[in-house]
Each structure stands twice: as structure tokens, then as C-alpha cells.
Amino acid sequence: MNNKNIIIILAPLQGFTDLTFRNVWAKHFSGIDEAIAPFISTMGQQRLKPSRIKDVAPEDNQHLFVIPQILGNVSTDFIFLAQHLYVMGHKRINWNLGCPHSKIAKKHRGSGLLPYPAKIDELLGQIIPKISSSLSVKIRLGRRAKDEIFNLLEMFDRHPLEEIILHPRTGIQMYEGTSDHDAFGKAIQNSRHTFTYNGDIIDLSSFERVRNRFPGINRFMIGRGILSNPFLAEEIKGSQKSGKPRLDRLRAFHDDLFAEYDKIFSGPAHLTGRMKGFWTYLGPSFRESKKPLKQILKSTSLPAYTDRVEAFFDQNLEFFPGA
Length: 323
Known about the structure:
By secondary structure, the protein is an alpha/beta fold. The protein folds into two domains: 7-237, TIM Barrel (Alpha-Beta Barrel), CATH 3.20.20.70; 246-314. It is built from 14 helices and ten strands. The protein has helices at 19-28, 50-53, 75-88, 102-105, 117-127, 148-156, 181-189, 204-213, 224-228, 232-237, 246-264, 268-282, 290-297, 302-314; strands at 7-10, 34-36, 40-41, 65-67, 69-71, 92-97, 134-142, 164-170, 195-198, 219-222. The chain has a ten-stranded parallel β-sheet.
């Protein structure tokens, strides 16, 4: 199947897919068409901290087209933030109705709002007429039960949404189990809206399974799959940004990412902590990487971290994501 006409969107992953990651990734790889930024929470009383919107400053997002995502459940606060983002230059906004974490859900934010379609209906009725940008929603099948989706879709059909990004799991599933393709198929049949598929695309074969199952879908959101395999978007589209060996490209990507985070993090523990987070995704994509990866993750100082990363790449382990 021809994949040239598909759109790949980088998923918003808190602590990972921030401005620094997006810019460094785009320097070394290609194939991603859009990125939804990690969510910006509304603050209440129409307050705004500049630090919260720095990640989506258009002048700093020249390499990947970025769409801000808002997390909130108060219409006036949502409108205030959305309008501020519009003035900054953002014509598209996404509403996070899918975050599965209980700390957020118990406050009726993210997937915690999904059991209350009447509340979402009320909020959309208040928000959409008063914002200048288009609005999409990122959702799950429900908070606790996957049949919650049908009441939600009936409600969403009453509103002019740009699209629905659906991760076919419930909120309480977090990322356990597998994405429910049957439920996704029923959802797209019961809605008038355009859909983006999100969930468990970790390699070319998993992408092709989804693509073949839903030939009418041409927008795909990928998060963890890109962290595990930064080449994945290129593999899907059958193109590549560089002809250099993969290990050389990965090493250069790591070194640039490390250097850029070193400019903004206040201490070595913060820097190595962030980089170790990426290794939990990237490391297992190398064959026979268990022991050297464990050494990286056990690093307690910056010199130990850099030495162990250098030793890891010097072993020339086979990069084989999805194995």
C-alpha cells in the first residue's frame, strides 16, 4: 500500500517530546508532518505563566509544525489560554481528553472527563464560539469502559471539531494490553468526524496492520514508537534524511540531544535523569543490550553516564527495534 499520502503526527509525551527533543529529532530524521506538544494546563482566574507556553513559541518551532494541547475543564480558563495561543500564531488547538493518569483523571481532567459527555458538551458549546482557532480532541474509548465512546461520539457530532484523535484503550488501562482495533472501527463508523489513529504503532509491520485494517484513515499519531525507533517515520514513508549508517545517526542524535539539554538543565542529575528516560525506550531496540543498558541506567554521575554511553555505542550492537 502506498504510504506517501499519509500524515504522521508526533504524540505529546510529557517529559519527552518537548521543544528540545522535537528540534533535535528534526535535525537528524524526517517523516513526521506535525507534532502535538505536551499539554499546557489551564491555571484558573485567567492567569498565565510565560514558562508554560515557551515550549510552543512559533519562533522556536521552525523544524516541526506544532499544535498546542490544552488540559483543562473550565471554559473561561480554556478560552483565555486558547486565545493567547492564537495571538501567538497558533491556528489549531487540541484538547486533551485522554490523559490516563489517575492524578489528573480524579480532577475530571484528561480521561477523567470522558464519563461525563454532558459536561464536555456544555464546555464545547461555550468554548468553540469564543475561540479563533480550530479545535480537535484527543480521547480514549472511555475512562473505565470502552462503550463510553458511543455516548461521546453522539455528543461530539453536535460540534464542529477539526478531528478526533482516538487511542483505542480506556483510561484505566493506561498502556497495558493491546489497542482495540474492533472498537476503533466501530467508532469511525459511528461518527461524522475525521479520525486520527493513535496506539501501538511501534514498527513498520504494526503500522501496516493498522493501515490495512483502516484504509480510509490517513493520519497516524506515534509517540513511544518514535522514541524506541527514531527512524520509524522514515521507514513508513520509504524515505530517509541521511545515507549515513544508522548507528552513526543515532550516536549523533544522542550527542546533540545531550548537548541541547545540557544548555537548559540546572544540574547533572537533572540532565542524566532526562537522558536515562530516553534510554528506557531506545536501549531495548538494540540486540544484546540488556547489560550495557543497565549500566547506563545505573549511572550516578555525569562522567559515568557519558563513559557508559560511549562504551554502549562502541560495541556496535545491532539496532533492531520491534524485535
